[in-house]
Amino acid sequence: MVVELARRVPVVESEHRKGAGPVGRMVMAIPGESLLDLISLGFKMVWATVGLFWLWSARGVKRSSRTESLLLQLVVYWAPLLMAFLLLGPSDWFQGSFLNERFIPKALWTKGVGLALAAAGAMLACWSRHILGRNWSSVVQLKQDHELIESGPYRYIRHPIYTGLLLAFLGTALKVGDWRGLLAVAIVLASFRRKLGVEERWLSEEFGAAYAAYRRRTKALVPGVI
Question: pLDDT at position 21, please?
């Protein structure tokens, strides 16, 4: 009976491979460790693309007419982002801590879903940054000759860059799989929530009724939700 089962196993595997499409056969041919390496490389490329695009597109932005103090920017915006990236660092940094405990199973599919979310978030953030053009700033500012942008993703949500970056952080948290990843997302969300609140107050003062009408037509972060 054991011999008979051994003879039948290759037939079943062969039929399974035969029925799979070209992409499925290619994926089945890649060892699990190689797929993990590819996913890790994908995350590095996502964040490198965002960083390089941000640096390149910062050229030629308009001068500011109103901005927050440098100390406030460091404490409320830059420090939380740095803390979030550190939390998403190597697991060796958190050995013995509850932050290194998993909130999802350690599985290939969770990392794949995380990469898809991170890539989608990065594309949304970069697209939104491109649409803002010279009106963009990394901190809360009003620009000289500031324009109210309502095209592209801004037609549906008022802060699509934050939405995109939050998706990228959430995807990276799924890749990490530990509680520290969710803490990083929560820290970034709190920072962005404070930032968009100030931005909306300043834009309301700058554009008056036009911005009030824009707020009534759109949501802050998620179309039709919030």
Answer: 52
